[in-house]
Structures are given as C-alpha cells and as structure tokens.
Fold:
Amino acid sequence: MREIDPLITGFVHLKEKPREAEALKTLQRIASLVKPLMRQRGWRVGTLVEFYPPEPNLLGINWNKGQKICLRLRYPGDERQFLPLEQVLDTMLHELAHIIWGAHDANFHALWQQLRDEHEQLARQGYTGEGFLSQGHKLGGRRIPMDEARRRARASAEKRKVINAGSGQRLGGVPVRRGTDIRQVIADAAQSRINVTKGCGSGAKDTKAIVEQATKNGFRTQAEEDDANERAIMEAYIELLQEEEKGKWGEAYLLHTGKEHRIVSISVSTDSTFIYQTTTSTSSSNNFNSKE
Structure:
C-alpha cells in the first residue's frame, strides 16, 4: 500500500567511505524516527545528506529551511566508526528546529526541547519508526482502518508502560540506574546540548560551499513513497502524543508549527521543568524549491 507523500525526498551518503551501506541505512533510520514530528507540523526536507567535514566539531547543517540537512555520522579521525544513533538523532532534531528559527535564541531552544520531548514520548509509547508492520503484522495488501491503527498504537503504548514501570527516573529517554549521580547525569545532558549547538554550522558564511561539496561527493538515493498503512500507524501515534501533551499542559499546550511562537517569559516549575509562555506571529514554513 503505497502513497506519494514522502516527507524527506532523498538521501545522499558518502559511497567511497567504509561501511557505506550502513551510512545510508542510518540516514533512513533517522528520517523514520523524526517523521511523526515533521508530519504533524507539515515540515518537509528535500535531501538528508551525510557529510564528513574536516572541522572535527561540525555536526550538522540546515540549508535553506530544510532544502538540505547535513549530518555527521562518523567520528572525526576515524571514518570507520559511527557516532551513537541518539547523538545523530539529537543533531537532526536541532537542525529541524532551524526550519522555523535561525538564531540559537530562547525561541529556538524551546522548539528544540519540544522536539526532544516528543521523540522521547513516542519512544516510551513504543514507536520505533517505520517498520512497525514488518514483523508479522502485514495485512496482505489491505489498508488498515484508522480505528485499527489506533488500537495497535495504544496496545503498543500500554505494553511499553508495563515494561517501563519501575525502571526508575528517566532523563532523555534513558533509564537512570540506581546509585547513579543524578547531578552528573544532568551535567552530561547539558554538555551534550552545548556540543550539538556548537557543532551546528547553519547560517555560517561557508555553509553553502560545505553543503554543495557534501552533495557532490555523495551518492543520491530517492526516498521510497510512504506506505499508507505505516502512515496510519504514525498518525495514531501522533494522536497519542498530542493527548499526552494536552493532558500534561492543558490549555497551555502549544504545538510549534509553521507559525512562530515567540518566548515572552521563562519560568521553572517545582519539578525543574522549564515552562515557556509564548505569543504567536505568522511565519513562512519551509516552502523551499525541492528541485536540486
């Protein structure tokens, strides 16, 4: 069951590098994990590109509001070794936030944090990206009714709740083991955020040259059309995500979309959660020219 609605049009990986097939699969995996966040906002990315810049701290670039997003997949100085998937994913979420906001200001960080939170919630509910239907769940080519998609998503979410019950405090989607110094965990998470921000090349003077070089050196793969049944499952998970967010924030819940939500004040709740009060102004979404 295929339908033409790819949120990411194509992929470019470095074919001359070691483990090149794994690089392409990593790009596709990252795309699969962020699609629910993109779909509910109407965001699209033209090309997701692997790059390996000489600058060791450069991790990602968003060119022209998502026309191209470049990600470092490999360790500097050792192109055979891949960075942890969660690190690359966090860079991807960071670069997606640049679709709406250019500067690394409070508005940008609020959107980046919302994307992080939503990804974590999807993971807790059991969303593992596209392929949910690949393990004995196929329907012989028949389209899944939306009610059935919702049932499957909720069943998976309930199962994950049982698995996660009693796992202890969580930070960034990872269970914190008993006896762990939570202050060090928080400090490490903060440092990771700083590293990703420092490693962002979006808006730099030589950004265009870096993006063009990465695209020139890479091998392009056209994205497959989205599977209609996979999309139904994805949309069911989006509904669960929004229900959870609205249940937590009530009327204060505000989805960052193609409109700009400007931060007017920031406060911290008793459980150390950052609360952003916002005002809305119109902004163009990423209507880039998808032709390369």
About this structure: The radius of gyration is 19 Å. Residues 167 and 175 are 6 Å apart (CA to CA). The chain has a mean pLDDT of 75. The longest strand covers residues 260-268.
